[in-house]
Amino acid sequence: MTEEIIIAGFGGQGVLSMGKILAYSGIMQDQEVSWMPSYGPEMRGGTANVTVIISDERVSSPVLTEFDTAVILNQQSMDKFESTIKPGGYLLYDPNGISRHPERKDIKVFKIEGAKIAADLGNTKIFNMVVLGAYLKMRPIVKLENVILGLKKSLPERYHKLIPLNESAIKSGMESIEEVA
To answer: Buried-most residue among 29, 78, 102, 131 (CB within 10 A)?
Structure first.
């Protein structure tokens, strides 16, 4: 099994940390992983994306032009990465801030109202964990307990008190994902 993922959105949405947590989760399952971030010169508000590969075999190169799954969190990323999903692949997106919804018919399309759910849970900073939960429901390539271990590994210890909130956000995302016809 090899899963090649692109996660893309604005800086400040937790794109890179979502990718890092996925990568750590794969490591916790004794899988081979690659995590390759890419971001513009702006810190918040600029575009950011991360390529994550999780595989049972060695990863030969982190550089990809096609992906099994794309997680899209803004319109610029939709415009750039929708066409790079392999036929039969998966697209997960948050419709907040998307003006042109996915158009491809040869992929499976899912949506998650991540921004709304995070706001309803009382903390907009857990947006990326809601989206991660939706991804894990759609593509259960890593176990939830390994995601929690990945969270512990990627978060500084002073933020470990927020792990239960993050776990709750992940579960909310798992419960709220919708397939788009």
So the answer is: 131
- Of 32, 27, 25, 36, the closest CA to residue 62 belongs to 36
Q: Counting beta carbons within 10 angstroms of the beta carbon of residue 57, is it exposed (0 to 12), middle (13 to 18) or buried (19 or more)? A: exposed
| DSSP secondary structure string for all residues of 96-143 | TT-SS----SSSEEEE--HHHHHHHTT-GGGHHHHHHHHHHHHS--S-
pLDDT at 11: 82
How much of the chain exceeds pLDDT 70, in percent? 96
pTM, to two decimals: 0.93
The burial class, CB within 10 Å (0-12 / 13-18 / 19+), for 168 is middle
- Asked: is 2-180 a CATH 3.40.920.10 domain? The reply is yes
What's the chain's Rg over C-alpha atoms?
15
